Amino acid sequence: MVLQWSPDLYRISALLIEVIKRLQKGQLATPLQRDLLSVLAQLYTHEQRFEPAVDIYLKLNDRSIFALIERFKLFHLVKDRIHQLIAVDADLAIRLLLENEDSLSPSTVMKQLIRLPKLQLAYLERLFARGQGEEFGDVAVLLYAEHNRPRLLQFLQDREHYTLDKALEVCRQQHFTPETVFLLGKSGNRREALKVIITEMQDILRAIDFCVDRDDFDLWLDLIEYSAMHTDFLIILMQCVGMHVDPKLIVDRIPIDTKIPHLKEALLKLLLDHCIKINIEKNCRKITLSDCHRLLTEYMERCKSRTVVTGGDDCMVCQENLVNPYFHQSRELVVFNCHHVFHLKCLREQRCPTCSS
Q1: Got the DSSP string for 217-279?
Q2: CA within 20 to 30 Å of 141's CA: 4, 202, 233, 292, which one?
Q3: pLDDT, mean over the chain
């Protein structure tokens, strides 16, 4: 009745006393006691006695408390009871914290959640999504490393506000190889990153992709030198890098008197890919030269064509007639190769104002 009827239909104070008496008698079945407490909280709310109402809702773990806080702006009553709010509903609690960051700073929230690292991480993710929380970048790296490893690499790639050295130390301690490779590459230590890929990850294809993306001659040399000592790497390398590396760099480093399975096929693939690359480059050069010649010819022809200035043409700077039959003093005109015409006195520079704007 209390939960459904308007408070104008009954005496709140009298009903409040009766409910308290029933609760004080004790020996109530748990469901009945819970119902009575819910009624009591509602009656306190009707009387705008919000503190006891909040206490009851928290005791009951009732999600209605969030609607109550939002409706009557009661965040000040619960800002020191974040743990209890989270116990009721973590998602709603985090949303409430974000909506009231003016009353409770993110640093204070993080301190209150110090023993709940997963919730700290959930809170930070919401904070980052709002474009805030840059000062918690290093904390986020630690939390991801300990509680959500699959999201760590994406975080490192998407965010800039963390200390590279600290993040690298965390990843090395945890033996997170892909993250370590990314951080080494980001810090400019590309050769060490490549070394980690080929020695720890033993992933030649990833090493090739790494070198292709960076297009660094020294990286290619390191990869070739290492592969020359490992025939299984060498064969894959020869099959994949013909479009990126001069075959001579690889062939010169193939160990003499070493039996390498499938060497002939790999060498043919290497040379064929390199020939294709050379042909592509030649054709691209031909096309580029042809386009340049065509455009230059068009430009020269345009420069040779005449420009007719009539009395109806206006200067594009002063908007006056270029040739005024009523103005007997001669006016000097400037005609550019683009066929735009101006009064000499209107020009401030040697280039066409229309084409250079």
Answers
A1: HHHHHHHHHHHHT-HHHHHHHHHH-TTTS-HHHHHTTSPTT---TTHHHHHHHHHHHHHHHHH
A2: 202
A3: 88
